[in-house]
Amino acid sequence: MMPTRSDAVALLEEWVENEALRRHMYAVEAAVRHYACLKGADEDLWGLAGLLHDLDWERHPDEHPHVGVARLRELGYPDEVVHAIQAHAYPDRTDVVPESQLDRVLYACDELSGLVYACCLVRPNGIDDLKPKSVAKKMKDKAFARGVDRDAVGRGIELIGLPWAKHIQNVIDGMRAVADVLEVRGEDQARRRGEKPDLVTGARDHVTEYSDESFWKRSGGWPRRPEGDP
User: Fold this and answer.
1) Which CATH number is associated with domain 5-196+206-214?
2) What is the pLDDT of residues 72-85, one digit of tens each?
3) Rounded to 5 degrees, what are φ and ψ at 124?
4) Cis omega before residue 230 (within 30°)?
């Protein structure tokens, strides 16, 4: 039986303490799941690859992703998930070429999600009104978000086979679905500026909800787009 998302979250929490890294992994999961929805793929399986792709980065940065991959194999994670996680580190850390749709999507969403996240943090409204052109502009600014590998972003766009603006929009859309958990909404930015955000009566505990597998099942999963819209 394939490990569940609850299993994967427990594994992530066991291995990863850094909150920024956890948010990155959640962001990549959201973007990859969004692509699975668009392509009619298995959202749960694809989501596992996105959620656990940097499992060993904090504990074993010099051996990433090999230590994490070995553990995932021991735990019975699907070969497709393991292969995608290996391929996302190509060519710098592995010789596993991104081949499958999942491989390519994970590779294309990884670094770009980091850039999108950084863009959200410098905008008054965060991700609420973020457009692809703003992300593309920041991509050209090498002084911005220096940790983002621009070459990997470019390779990812080539692998995904979509116009750059479309791919960036897809990643934004995926991350926007969990913007409350990532704390990249306009109200999160207002809170950082010391402004009092609007209070919502009966607000849910989104972090707890997001960590629960039922989050992905409500209302049939991700909102579906009309056929023909990639």
Assistant:
1) 1.10.3210
2) 999 999 999 999 99
3) -55, -40
4) no
State the virtual CA torsion across 152, 14, 43, 171 in degrees, nearest 10. Answer: -40
Whether residue 68 contacts residue 52, with contact meaning beta carbons closer than 8 Å, is answered with yes
- Arithmetic mean of pLDDT over the chain: 88
Structure tokens at 13: 């929490």
Question: What distance in Å separates the CA atoms of residue 230 and residue 225, rounded to the nearest whole number?
Answer: 8
Residue 126 in 3-state DSSP? strand
Q: How many CB atoms lie within 10 A of CB 23?
A: 17
Please, where are the H alpha helices in the chain?
Answer: 5-15, 19-39, 43-52, 66-74, 79-87, 101-121, 132-140, 150-160, 164-176, 179-182, 186-192, 206-211
pTM score, two decimals? 0.86
pLDDT at residue 195, rounded to an integer: 79
Structure tokens at 204: 């849910």
Residues in the chain: 230
Distance, in Å, from the CA atom of 23 to the CA atom of 13, rounded to the nearest integer, reads: 11
For residue 185, what is the DSSP state? B
- The domain spans of the chain are 5-196+206-214
Q: What is the tens place of the pLDDT at every residue in 36-82?
A: 999 999 999 999 999 999 999 999 999 999 999 999 999 999 999 99
